[in-house]
Amino acid sequence: MAEKGNISIHTENIFPIIKKFLYSDHEIFLRELVSNAVDASQKLKRLSAIGEYKGELGDLKVKVAVDKEARTITVSDNGIGMTAEEIKKYINQIAFSGATEFVEKYKDKPDANQIIGHFGLGFYSSFMVADTVEIISQSYQENTTAAHWVCDGSTEFTISDTERAERGTDVILNIAADSEEFLEEARIQTILNKYCKFLPVPVEFKGEIINNPTPIWTKSPSELTDEDYKNFYKELYPFSEDPLFWIHLNVDYPFNLTGILYFPKLKNEFEFQKNKIQLYSRQVFITDEVKDVVPEFLMLLHGVIDSPDIPLNVSRSFLQADSNVKKINTYITKKVADKLAEIFKKERENFQDKWNDINIFVKYGMLSDDKFYEKAKDFALLQNIEGKYFTIDEYKDFIQANQKDKNDNLVILYTTDEDKQHAFVESAKDRSYDVLKLDTMIDSHFIGMLEQKLEKVTLKRVDAETVDKLIEKDETKESVLSEDEKTQLKEIYEKAINNTNMHVTIEPLSPQDQPVVITLPEFMRRMKDMSKTGGGGMMFMGNMPDTYNVSVNANHPINNRILSAQDDSKEKIAKQAFDLALLSQNMLTGPALTAFVKRSVELIEKD
């Protein structure tokens, strides 16, 4: 006999709220229904394991079927099933307290992120896409009758006896006119691939199992080979190159967390491929927005995190701020640091081979997290222009004897472009100085951090000054020019250059150094580098004109020649020497370059 009744929710406004506000993404109805079917299967397994169910489990499976002609989607399982009384208990009474208060609080707000997801509303997401929803269920319990529940999206329902050939449940959605897209098999296939790919019970669609019920993150690392990890990476990212290495996460106290994080090969600088880490809860896909769970600097990683202890809002679409989230974030940071330290210690050569691919992760982490810095400073590598790798402490020891200035500061020299700064690199090498390569986008920030963290250490780009000024020693270099000659030479160059952004000084450099050296002061260059990468408060520097130091070598023969040349030749030779300095730094272009070439021909012909 059929029974009619009202769903016990104390209000008739719950369905529009579910449809409009709690579930903004309508496709998740399928995730919820398939997840419920999986739960029904898992419950039966547990009852069997503890001896409360004596029957055969059979081939536990969830089936999804689309009937475009009948306009239905059916999700079926052969799990625990429900009696009519259980349907009335679990379906008819939406299990949360203070329903009226809940509705009043959220009915006018599209943002329901603060609601904890324990209200049993998953099933009701069906009404986002269906006019009428039916349940046909046969309990696992002996001597029970199958029940047929029907609801048209109002608070009224009917429930009656029916027949079902075997234990389990069918949920039948009669699709609404505005949701016909979900009657397309391709659309359903896409949703199943997204949300149900790793559910722990086989899910069948169009006669095929569409999921992997035992993904490798559910297994012990001791069971897995390198090939297993690589194959799973291909399963997640079919068109990606093999990862560099991976970290298997597995913790059960003080929270439950499993997963695998992969270090991918980055194809270009700061290739922020966000949403590459997938968050699951008991193998149900939740979101790929994991910025609160995973530290920002590890958002470049790929992989999977699965935790039932991450609090979600009622629609399971958003993370909520919680102490567990912070603990998980801290745990992941520590786990990554420990894994990198282990690889460095056990396989240093392998670590060095991969450094160019992973240095952006490490440096970004050191910049953004002090605890990570403390661990990473022992395995973060510096590479010099000879291709040798050093830890920070190893490098300090390596340059200790030769690269201290008169104030006992250790001076680390570096290049950001060895080809463009070649002349300066060679000058440094002539003094037996070592030069590092710091040529990635993040290095301008990394350099500043090192100076803050390391005592009595400064870093200078190799073209920031003449080599003797880069590392000032407690010694005096003599000039072959008198004070009058220096003043005269300065005036000649200033007139020849005719640019107020070029500050000319006469320096007693080595005769082997260039006749003119042009440098952008370290402070100004750093500010400009920071502004390019969004350094706080430095954006204005990008619009300021460059102001250069022009160091004229008092001890170079060309500058003696300028002083002794005819008046009409002095400026021409000075201009030529200055343009040579510009040319060495790729700063000579356009009409100035054309004039330089013409002048060079004239000087050669004259000689």
TrEMBL record:
Q: What CDD domains does this protein map onto?
A: HATPase_Hsp90-like
Name of the protein in its database record? Chaperone protein HtpG
Annotated ranges, domain Histidine kinase/HSP90-like ATPase: 25-165
* TM region positions: none
Presence of the UniProt keyword Cytoplasm in the record: yes
Alphabetical list of PANTHER family matching this protein: HEAT SHOCK PROTEIN 90 FAMILY MEMBER
Which gene holds the coding sequence for this protein? htpG
Q: Which SMART domains match?
A: HATPase_c (SM00387)
Q: Which organism is it from?
A: Adhaeribacter radiodurans
Q: Which family does it belong to?
A: Belongs to the heat shock protein 90 family.
Cite the source lineage.
Answer: Bacteria, Pseudomonadati, Bacteroidota, Cytophagia, Cytophagales
